[in-house]
Amino acid sequence: MLVWIIFLACILVFLALDLGVFHKHDHVIKSKEAGIWTAVWVTIALAFSGVIYWLFSNGMMENPTGLTANDAVLKYITGYLIELSLSVDNVFVIAVIFSSFKIPPVFQHRVLFWGILGAIVFRALMIFFGVALITKFDWIIYVFGVFLLYTAFKMLRGDDEDFHPEKSFVFRNLKKLYPITSEINGHDFFIKKMGVRAATPLFVALLVIELTDILFALDSIPAILAITADPFLVFSSNILAILGLRSMYFLISRMLEKFRYINYSLVVILAFVGLKMLFSHYVHLPEWVSLTVISVSLIGGILASLYITEKE
């Protein structure tokens, strides 16, 4: 329990420094700054694998699955890469949301900050219940496997290309429940207009981002649970990937068209993880195989996007 408390305290410190010190004043995040912060978050996440090794090798963690320190590190890195790769799809959706609600670039970081905070809470709950389900009901892993294969199939077909958040069920019903204004007043989420407190487009975008993140978590949480059912490894790899999502958004959102083949990488990853879940009781792959498949899929998608010329 002490390890969990220290980890969560460190996350809160990181978030406080992010908003209260490094991004205290609203400004447009340029590609160079986003690249530096992406490198910082990735370095922190990979360096944390050393902490994982130390915790498991010294028996300082509850180890319900009986992992060795080396296996724990491999599972953590594999889970982190899965979450990071699936975040690419999330970046595209966030870009569409900001565009639809006309959120100025100068305020986008603040919206994403509070979006990440909410995502940590929701994912913690989903991980807790997901681990509990897999631990109690062995057959639930087959449900997760089929769901991931279905998601991969939908992604391959491109069913989610036409996404219009301003026409979504959430936005239409939010207008009935609470006053909404199209006016943006600095980075405020609510303003008082003619004596009525109304939500600004920043709050609406935040709410839609939170809800879409829950939908994305329905893919990413089962995918990581296919790698390990250790709750700390699942939670830490997931949260550290989410923390880097903001800087990654500002880094690659302007280059989404260049990464046109990355979706095929995500299809391969989701299909592989889904099949691994379905055959988990019959075939036991070494950890390095999963890590290799995920890494090669990502690198292959990036290289294909960079070197295959787009047809007119």
From TrEMBL:
<keyword id="KW-0472">Membrane</keyword>
<feature type="transmembrane region" description="Helical">
    <location>
        <begin position="111"/>
        <end position="133"/>
    </location>
</feature>
<feature type="transmembrane region" description="Helical">
    <location>
        <begin position="202"/>
        <end position="226"/>
    </location>
</feature>
<feature type="transmembrane region" description="Helical">
    <location>
        <begin position="34"/>
        <end position="56"/>
    </location>
</feature>
<feature type="transmembrane region" description="Helical">
    <location>
        <begin position="139"/>
        <end position="156"/>
    </location>
</feature>
<dbReference type="InterPro" id="IPR005496">
    <property type="entry name" value="Integral_membrane_TerC"/>
</dbReference>
<feature type="transmembrane region" description="Helical">
    <location>
        <begin position="6"/>
        <end position="22"/>
    </location>
</feature>
<comment type="similarity">
    <text>Belongs to the TerC family.</text>
</comment>
<dbReference type="InterPro" id="IPR022369">
    <property type="entry name" value="Integral_membrane_TerC_rswitch"/>
</dbReference>
<dbReference type="Pfam" id="PF03741">
    <property type="entry name" value="TerC"/>
</dbReference>
<feature type="transmembrane region" description="Helical">
    <location>
        <begin position="232"/>
        <end position="252"/>
    </location>
</feature>
<keyword id="KW-1133">Transmembrane helix</keyword>
<keyword id="KW-0812">Transmembrane</keyword>
<feature type="transmembrane region" description="Helical">
    <location>
        <begin position="76"/>
        <end position="99"/>
    </location>
</feature>
<dbReference type="GO" id="GO:0016020">
    <property type="term" value="C:membrane"/>
</dbReference>
<feature type="transmembrane region" description="Helical">
    <location>
        <begin position="288"/>
        <end position="308"/>
    </location>
</feature>
<feature type="transmembrane region" description="Helical">
    <location>
        <begin position="264"/>
        <end position="282"/>
    </location>
</feature>
<protein>
    <submittedName>
        <fullName>TerC family protein</fullName>
    </submittedName>
</protein>
